[in-house]
Amino acid sequence: MAYYSIAERLKNAWNAFASRDPTPGSFSYGMGYSMRPDRRRLTRGNDRSIVTAIYNRIAIDVAAVSIKHVRLNDEGRYIEDIDSGLNNCLSVEANIDQTGRGFIQDLVLSMLDEGVVAAVPIDTTLNPYVTGSYDIQTMRVGKITEWMPEYIRTNIYNDRTGRHEDLTVPKRTVAILENPLYAVMNEPNSTLQRLIRKLNLLDTIDEQTGAGKLDLIIQLPYVIKTDARKKQAEARRQDIEMQLASSKYGIAYTDGTERITQLNRSVDNQLLTQVETLTSTLYGQLGITEEVMKGTADEKTMLNYYNRTIEPILSAITDEFIRKFLTKTARSQHQSIKFFKDPFKLVPINNIADIADKFTRNEIMTPNEIRQVVGMKPSDDMAADELRNRNINQAGGEMPMDEGMMPEDEYTEEGTYPEEEYEEEPENPMDLPISAIS
What we know:
- This protein is α+β, with helices and mostly antiparallel strands.
- The chain folds into three domains: 38-181 and 292-343, no CATH class; 191-273, no CATH class; 347-392, no CATH class.
- Helices cover 36% and strands 15% of the residues.
- The strands form three sheets. The chain has a five-stranded antiparallel sheet with strand order 6-5-4-3-7. It has a three-stranded antiparallel sheet with strand order 2-1-10. The protein has a two-stranded antiparallel ribbon with strand order 8-9.
- α3 packs across α4 (100-114).
- The longest helix is centred in the C-terminal third of the chain and has 27 residues, at 299-325.
- The chain is elongated and about 105 Å long.
């Protein structure tokens, strides 16, 4: 941390509340809203049913998977991340209003709701209409309002004017993403749309039931056929309504010849049973269970959910991004867009030690990478960054030698010691020199 003197602190100090606003009339902040204008609003009544929870759950789970602009080797394996504007949009900041994760969540939520959406580059380093060798700086999600042979018209939020504006763009410069589950979720007679209609009917019936109506039938003691009798019956009905409305306890009186019948039970149309059946069918077709929605699913259930629901959406996004945002030259340089799912998110803490041992023993992860997974600082030991099995001797290491044992290169081919290193032992100790005997 840099050290500043007291004079420098007083000179350069700044406070958000102490700073003054620009002079009125000399500066404009732009249009203002009480709610966030770029936020996605669901359509066709999806915001008034349980479908919103399904959309939001899928969008959150897709956005939790990392999508990166990477470089591959000749075998198609991941080598490193590429420091590009596109990678920055996918991982850090997509635009002035959204992070990379928020952009993906908005993209998936819009795709599930609309069926087809467009990921439109807004700021680029070069003109995308002229060259394909440009880098994307910002991106936004656009609603497709019109289709043409080589162009589409999209409705996009313009963060410079604060309005949603229509923009006509070539298809080759934008990523057009169609919901892989379109037949189940967005077709007019799909399971999800039928469920939405049934839920809307159920909501209508609930509103009628809770409207405070008594549902009474009054039988008058005369035949109502003429206009005069109808006016008399209408006046009688209004009189009873006035009595019930003005009474403290809701009590009214009638003539002894009149009969009142209360319809306190509606006709059973099996609507609730149909909603439950459609909900169960939809969960099965989407690969979602009630445990997934509640957050109590086990590892096998979550694996099935990721493989059947999340993976097709991620593949649709990455494939379209590769096709539209990476040129043939970039793909020939082994550039690609991949998604990476964290395998430790669903692992209980009790199993981390066993998994860490297997990953390090089979030379899949280093100890420092394991320490990062569990939230610990990396070790300064250089051996902690080595990818090797620590249960056996390191490859190329030397075996320890016993004391008095000579190195292997000192042996002859016959397995005996060299003769020049040893003298013949005399047969009689008396033959030794006098100095040796002393």
